[in-house]
């Protein structure tokens, strides 16, 4: 990307890992808390990186950024997570320049989501951009790219059926309950964690199971109370967690902790217990499965569930890809203009200097010289000439570099300064 005059970094990269090759445990090693994200962004700025955004969700962790080499970004990720470079290399992907741009379009429009058409990622990309802008590492390229991806996402959502029906992770958990319990409305359900996934799960539980035997527990009780009030559900203190697990038929865990919050020593059930862990990193210790009557299901399993809704969504993929191709093409056209923007700016400055010198000469030579009319006429002529140059440079990207070199020599322009 060094020819595009948008960053000090030589190339634009996407580095990351996702559900496709990394299981939940490995994804957990590279999960970034909000504090870790802020620290990563700060370090990036300190190291001279002028364009970078980072996302970390239950399904993927990615860094999009400008760098001389992708290892700069990989190093940042590993220094702020529990993952190692060796682990990363086994499951990771690295995209460069136009491929990295295409990847963001696929991710932001839900085509690369674990559940096809899941549009929650676009809001996460928006938040990531805002965080980068506040940290001083979001340049004009990122603003333009994020807006283009948002535009594609909106059009796909409005013009296709790829987001029809409910197939989010939160709904998948409810669907599992509906498929495995004859009387889901009669089960005692305990929901631990009322963040975004917890809230969505709660809403889907009430809507689809018609169950009002749902108890909410959150470390911050007032957050749980706000959600409970909306649906007329019970709320218990965090200190009551063990006692409530004993009463539950189904335990849904959706906390944002970096370590397991549900362990063997919390469970003393005398009846069967289904545990659905919707968290990344895993918030339920694997060894709870050793307990008699306990069944543990993680979100990776839930996300593999396919139904008629997903089949209908797949039929919309070609239409969605066509929309992406159109908007991505427009973005790449804009990107091409960045190649010659400094030359056009320098050329316009050159013409203006020539105009000012000629008007000054004619002013001294001609009695009653009309400065205002001369300015208007000459500015219009310059603009028409500039449009011809710009249209020529836009028209054939294969010869842009040669044309730029010719223009610079012809008008003796200074070599554009790279950022």
TrEMBL record:
Keywords: NADP, Oxidoreductase, Porphyrin biosynthesis
Reactions catalysed according to its record: (S)-4-amino-5-oxopentanoate + tRNA(Glu) + NADP(+) = L-glutamyl-tRNA(Glu) + NADPH + H(+)
UniProt domain Tetrapyrrole biosynthesis glutamyl-tRNA reductase dimerisation: residue ranges: 319-413
Domain of life per record: Bacteria
Annotated substrate binding sites: 57-60, 113, 118-120, 124
Annotated ranges, domain Glutamyl-tRNA reductase N-terminal: 15-160
Record's subunit section: Homodimer.
Additional notes on this entry: During catalysis, the active site Cys acts as a nucleophile attacking the alpha-carbonyl group of tRNA-bound glutamate with the formation of a thioester intermediate between enzyme and glutamate, and the concomitant release of tRNA(Glu). The thioester intermediate is finally reduced by direct hydride transfer from NADPH, to form the product GSA.
Entry comment, domain topic: Possesses an unusual extended V-shaped dimeric structure with each monomer consisting of three distinct domains arranged along a curved 'spinal' alpha-helix. The N-terminal catalytic domain specifically recognizes the glutamate moiety of the substrate. The second domain is the NADPH-binding domain, and the third C-terminal domain is responsible for dimerization.
PANTHER family: GLUTAMYL-TRNA REDUCTASE
Name this protein carries in UniProt: Glutamyl-tRNA reductase
């Amino acid at each position: 990307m060094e020819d595009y005059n948008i960053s000090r970094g030589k190339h634009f990269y996407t580095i990351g890992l996702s559900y496709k090759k990394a299981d939940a445990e490995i994804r957990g090693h590279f999960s970034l808390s909000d504090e870790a994200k802020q620290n990563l962004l700060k370090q990036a700025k300190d190291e001279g990186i002028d364009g970078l955004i980072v996302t970390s969700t239950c399904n993927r962790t990615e860094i999009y950024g400008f760098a001389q080499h992708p290892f700069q970004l990989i190093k940042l990720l590993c220094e702020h997570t529990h993952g190692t470079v060796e682990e990363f290399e086994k499951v990771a992907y690295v995209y460069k320049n136009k491929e990295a741009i295409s990847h963001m379009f696929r991710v932001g429009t839900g085509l690369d989501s674990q559940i096809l058409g899941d549009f929650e990622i676009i809001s996460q990309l928006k938040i990531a951009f805002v965080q980068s802008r506040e940290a001083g590492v979001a340049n004009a390229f990122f603003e333009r790219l994020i807006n283009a991806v948002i535009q594609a996402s909106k059009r796909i959502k409005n013009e296709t059926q790829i987001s029809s029906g409910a197939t989010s992770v939160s709904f998948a958990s409810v669907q599992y309950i509906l498929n495995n319990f004859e009387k889901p409305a009669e089960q005692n359900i305990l929901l631990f964690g009322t963040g975004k996934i917890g809230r969505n799960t709660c809403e889907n539980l009430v809507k689809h199971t018609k169950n009002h035997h749902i108890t909410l527990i959150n470390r911050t009780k007032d957050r749980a109370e706000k959600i409970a009030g909306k649906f007329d559900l019970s709320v218990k203190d965090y200190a009551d967690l063990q006692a409530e697990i004993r009463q539950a038929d189904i335990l849904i865990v959706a906390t944002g902790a970096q370590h397991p919050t549900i362990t063997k020593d919390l469970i003393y059930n005398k009846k069967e217990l289904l545990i659905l862990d919707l968290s990344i990193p895993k918030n339920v210790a694997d060894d709870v499965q050793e307990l008699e009557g306990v069944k543990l299901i993680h979100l990776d399993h839930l996300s593999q569930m396919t139904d008629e809704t997903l089949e209908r969504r797949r039929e919309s993929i070609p239409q969605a890809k066509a929309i992406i191709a159109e908007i991505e093409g427009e973005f790449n056209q804009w990107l091409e203009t960045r190649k010659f923007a400094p030359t056009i700016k320098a050329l316009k400055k050159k013409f203006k200097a020539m105009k000012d010198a000629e008007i000054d000469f004619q002013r001294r030579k001609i009695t009653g010289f009309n400065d205002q009319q001369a300015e208007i006429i000459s500015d219009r002529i310059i603009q028409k000439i500039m449009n011809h140059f710009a249209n020529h440079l836009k028209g054939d990207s294969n010869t842009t570099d040669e044309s730029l070199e010719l223009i610079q020599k012809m008008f003796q322009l200074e070599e554009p300064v790279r950022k």
